[in-house]
């Protein structure tokens, strides 16, 4: 266990715990009160890892702790447990289960009010959630969470805080795994600079060693073998100097060096490194983990290559020999301008999370080093925008506005199918082409805004076979969708608000429809060194929970009125048009409910009608989505609407031929409403089993704390 991380855990726990570990301070006078002690929980978890018993004991221990913290009503304690669980599940390759933990942690943090302020708890939770999503290969979501974490970290951590290094390390993994090696190296070098600057003794610091290993792998992916070898050997040297060979992270350094050796065709050394790494992984984490399986696969490839090369000479001590020689070969200075993967402090809220290095090393197979250099094919407008920014926008700012490089945000957000990631060949007939947005503070925009816009417009109009872009009138002038904006102006052009409404102004939130909020919070942010744009966007993402609950109540009310009540009545009257519109209202309300139940701070908002089902299908395909099966059921309703409302023999009006469709529509509506009640019960939003959803509204509204009339039904 790393001492720095234990201290960090205690700081995190102390920020929200009842007191300095005093169980008796909680619910004094109530002998039957359920309590949860964060310090005791962390000590117990540390003991499990210290005994290398995590493979068998950590899972049940964490699951019981979640139950205990929830029963005690200790939100802060539960958030600590969830952060620990994310790290452990990731180390075990339990990515499916981890999606639910991530979503639960973000929703809990939002309920605690952490998302609207600057706190270490929110910053570290964001890092852990992002890393879990990255490990599950949910790269877009991971990158967005890391960007939010950058904003939070910049506001609460000092420049040499190791959690900043962890953030750079983890973000670099996203870049590495999405074929952006140069950006990965830049993040890692910055991480290495931070941990070295904060270290009492960099020559024996496990986090410095981890950063060297990760940088070695990023360099290897870019085919820079000599420098990769130096950093991999330097990591082993640090473990030797600090007598850290018994640390779980030693497996990362061994496997990293082995991977470099494989690329250098030093197959005997690669075999030795992987064998030794496997022994450490098995001892610390067990065989039933991604770490063990991937490293074992790497070993198998190295052994095959060794056999094919006819090399039967054991060179078991060669890696250690290289490490011992590395001190004289490597200078102490590092380039602070370039960096990439993961440090042992990456997941800063838990001892279970220190395994990230093993994951960082073992996710790359030995043959991956030469595969990451080819430019990815452009498959979407967001990819095109990012590439265009990298090729022209970023260099233009560096050359013409060097003093503003650390102040300008870039990305693509707003109106247009590509901002949602739904564009295809059909979408490219208008308003499509190489473009991006640049966002400035009001002060910076007043100084350089017009000049920067002119420079943006002077950039090449064609790029990678796309363009020039043909803009429709609705995307020009005041409604333009790209170029240079003051941050407040940008959000005001979409929402009417320069910044998100205050949490105490629910009537303003209710005036913003979900499609508007979707347009303000979609897309990707490529760079935001100040964090100013991400902070404003996060404000629009973080819908107050009272507003969300009020909308949930409204949606289930419409589902009851339109689907459960009016569809059968209109069909009985023979008014096919009214029945069809009732089905439409039911579908619309239900689609909105799915997003609200899953919480917009996590999954975003339901977009406007054209893309509602595209968004709903994508959400339903995600691991751990609540009410995931509803999407297919809603499509069934729409498919059967014609036969239900106007069907008959031969699809002529009237007749008994519509009966099967009517029966299926009716049963589908009932099934959806029953699933909604089950979910409301799981969420603790109702105590009732009543399936007519109108009667569920009072139970949901019991959880609305505000007395504002606009949040409550009559």
From TrEMBL:
DUF4037 domain location is 509-611
**Annotated segments matching region Disordered:** 315-343
Q: Report the SUPFAM superfamilies cross-referenced here.
A: TPR-like
**Does the record bear Repeat in its keywords?**
yes
Keyword field: Repeat, TPR repeat
Q: Does the keyword Phosphoprotein apply?
A: no
> What PANTHER family does the annotation carry?
NEPHROCYSTIN-3, TETRATRICOPEPTIDE REPEAT PROTEIN (AFU_ORTHOLOGUE AFUA_6G03870)
This protein is called what?
A: Tetratricopeptide repeat
